[in-house]
Amino acid sequence: MSRGVVTEAYQRLSEDGHVEGRGRGGTVVVAVPGAPVEQARGIGRTPSAEALFTTPPTVHVFDAVRVLPSRIDLSPGAPDLAAFPRAAWLRAERAVLAELPTSGFGYGDPRGTEELRRAVAYWLARYRGIAADPREVLIVAGTAQALGLIGTVLREDGIRAIGVEEPGSLGVRQHLRNQGLETPPVPLDEDGVRVDALREQGVGAVALTPAHQFPTGVVLGGARRRELMAWGGVVLEDDYDAEHRYDRAPVPALRSMVPERVCYAGSVSKLLAPALRTGWVLAPPRYRDTLVDAKRFADLGNAALPQLVLARLMESGELERHLRMLRRRHRRRRDAMTEAIRRHLPRAVVRGAAAGLHLLVTFEAAAFADTELAAAAVAHGVKTHPLSWHRQLPGPPGLLLGYAATPAAVIEAGVTALGQALREIGG
Amino acid sequence: MSRGVVTEAYQRLSEDGHVEGRGRGGTVVVAVPGAPVEQARGIGRTPSAEALFTTPPTVHVFDAVRVLPSRIDLSPGAPDLAAFPRAAWLRAERAVLAELPTSGFGYGDPRGTEELRRAVAYWLARYRGIAADPREVLIVAGTAQALGLIGTVLREDGIRAIGVEEPGSLGVRQHLRNQGLETPPVPLDEDGVRVDALREQGVGAVALTPAHQFPTGVVLGGARRRELMAWGGVVLEDDYDAEHRYDRAPVPALRSMVPERVCYAGSVSKLLAPALRTGWVLAPPRYRDTLVDAKRFADLGNAALPQLVLARLMESGELERHLRMLRRRHRRRRDAMTEAIRRHLPRAVVRGAAAGLHLLVTFEAAAFADTELAAAAVAHGVKTHPLSWHRQLPGPPGLLLGYAATPAAVIEAGVTALGQALREIGG
């Protein structure tokens, strides 16, 4: 047998969730779906599993979900982490350590290393249609930090409220509110955010996910983009998973159209791993210096070594290869989830399947609360996000179901359990 | 010849500044003292070399110093970066990548990884006399971030002003002020901060460097410690270089005496490299949860891989070995600098020689401004910090002279140039 056949066999077993790679620890057989539960570890004010779905979500909600014991994790937000390119990362780290001059270990440029800013500028040109000079790129510790820094700068500029999509990311809203900003909801329709409603809100800025709206998956339409360009405010473009498009080419970033009014934020959390805490911001020229100042005060700049390793993975084409592999794998998992939903949740309306790492299912005209369904799912060992967490206004119940990090067989088991949970609550 | 002899020869050549290791790039001969100047790279509002010493220091002053072309860098704040344990770091990274479970690449605990919190707790017990549970340890992106987070939390607790040592770190003052806090100066004497003056200020908190006062090197005396314990406010203990003590054992941290009122901050910037952007905070119990919340909002927690690598270096004893080696090397460089000062700056008073990474020289009853001397030194290609940057009140002129990152031969050349500069300005 050739090495290719063995590799392919291992890969399929891995993708179906029968085995899991443990790096040098070899490959081990995984019991599915009855995998052992994680130990719950409380952090400060983290709500208990009981309180999680019976009280409104606090800033501790995502920690609570993370530490919640489960056998199947369908919470949205992560790519396939089992595919993290450990060997390529180590090779790049070796090269970085071999070549870094002594001064590279000292205090650095708060904007990030030249190497990563150059690699990001190239990546954005190639994949997001954005022409950016590397000197414009600010390296940050993920989108969470980007939101905090941008919020600080907009507040200093006199902006008191940032419109947010409805429904829209709870996490984004929490980070902006922590900066003392109001986050009035701006409704969506099938073309994305309603610019007429945005005008009515009278806000100076809006936070958008134009390429793949979180959580509905709507793409901001061409006419709506032109309308938005005519609107005078600042757009905070959260391009969180734009590279993951399955059925057609990615939509260019808004930033490529109106650089003077768009503050663009991207990260490697959905490309490689959230644990890398690495992202980038392109600010409009008038905010660029104050944003660098905010980053300097935040932490004097990201750590150097991981930036240089990432720059190598981007420049060598490793990250592109990884993304292509992820896209194929994620697409198969999305298909598995769509099919499982068709069979086990036949009345659910599925949205956002063309791109991203999760699906949104809603239950139109249903009488139950989605937090009730999410709680019943947890009783079956399945973690999801209730849609209502990501809403400020009432609407039909729904669930956000991540598929990217979960093998097809586990997705099937998880959605089967969701069907049981739905029947139990009378949905 | 044995390998040991060759290694020793290379080490001496390296320590004397004749050769420099470039990792896998081999060892190259360094021209001393006429090494090529770095390219100046402006960042946003970074002041020009001309403005640097003629205008009061802004928040951009340290970036300006960093990018200033020079042949000899005696600015304080860095350990010997040429000694960074590249091979040990890579070995630890390989082990981390081989063993990390898939979930380790996802979003993590905002407090940091269990592994690093455990290693830091052990380190603090062993080297700083602090008994801390790993669950109390918060991993942060260096002391800069620690100051921002602690400032946020103290401000939310109603504290409006934090006393700072006079003289004291400009950087610390800038970070606290950025949080909207006032920083009234509290004078020092030969036993450290004057607690009677602190009482008069009527502040609710004070930022101190008790083990080795920055920049004077004074150690907070025993009676003064007891006085401080009787004072009712919060102490922000910045333990920035406490492990580097040459002539006697390190002084235990204040935190070990009054954990309920001391917010302790340490980092690896002076142990390994500032570019790692890794540090830790131990907060008083009543601030612990709000501090974790502040870290979550800042960036959701430090990146996982470097934390795990560092934890291995700490647990395996590599960091301890590195520290012992650094201490020997730094001590020799300190001796070289003290001797060079005796010869070339005979009227300078030297302070802070017992510990740390820099010396303070002052020129009592001198008529010149230290910024003038620092500017004249730059004209000779030598970077230093004028003492007045780290003062809020008038005082005799002085310079902060870092020796840890500079080989003895280069120190000698740098101090010789300082002597010339001093004569040029008529000092």
Structure explained in plain terms:
The structure is a homodimer. The first copy, chain A, has helices at about 5-15, 50, 60-65, 85-100, 115-130, 140-155, 170-180, 195-200, 220-230, 290-300, 305-315, 320-345, 370-380, 410-425, and strands spanning about 20, 25-30, 70-75, 135-140, 160-165, 185-190, 190-195, 205-210, 235-240, 260-265, 280, 350, 360, 380-385, 385, 400. Chain A is of the alpha/beta class and about 425 residues long. The first copy, chain A, folds into 2 domains: about 5-85 and about 320-425, Aspartate Aminotransferase, domain 1, CATH 3.90.1150; about 85-315, 3-Layer(aba) Sandwich (Aspartate Aminotransferase, domain 2), CATH 3.40.640. In chain A, strands 4-11-10-9-8-5-6-7 form an 8-stranded mixed sheet, with helices on both faces. Chain A has a 4-stranded antiparallel sheet with strand order 12-13-16-15. Chain A has a two-stranded antiparallel ribbon with strand order 1-2. In chain A, helix 4 (about 85-100) crosses helix 11, helix 5 packs across helix 11 (about 305-315) and helix 13 (about 370-380) packs across helix 14. The first copy, chain A, starts with a helix and ends with a helix. Residues about 30-40 of chain A have low confidence and may be disordered. The interface between A and B is large, with 71 and 72 residues.
